[in-house]
């Protein structure tokens, strides 16, 4: 269960980004460069997971 909790935590920024980019009431294309930087920063921070499977998943995926 700890692996699933870590994956959920690590993928949370992608869910937020997806929801933001899905907006139809505002322009989102101009936000892509900053959003990509923030996602990259978030992924790098999430590499500090505690479980070995969590670390392996994120290091191989990103």
Automatic annotation (TrEMBL):
This is Uncharacterized protein.
């Amino acid at each position: 269960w700890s692996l699933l909790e870590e994956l959920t935590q690590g993928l949370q920024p992608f869910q937020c980004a997806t929801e933001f980019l899905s907006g139809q009431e505002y322009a989102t294309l101009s936000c892509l460069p900053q959003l990509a930087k923030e996602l990259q920063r978030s992924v790098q921070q999430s590499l500090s997971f505690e479980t070995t499977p969590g670390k392996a998943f994120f290091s191989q995926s990103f």
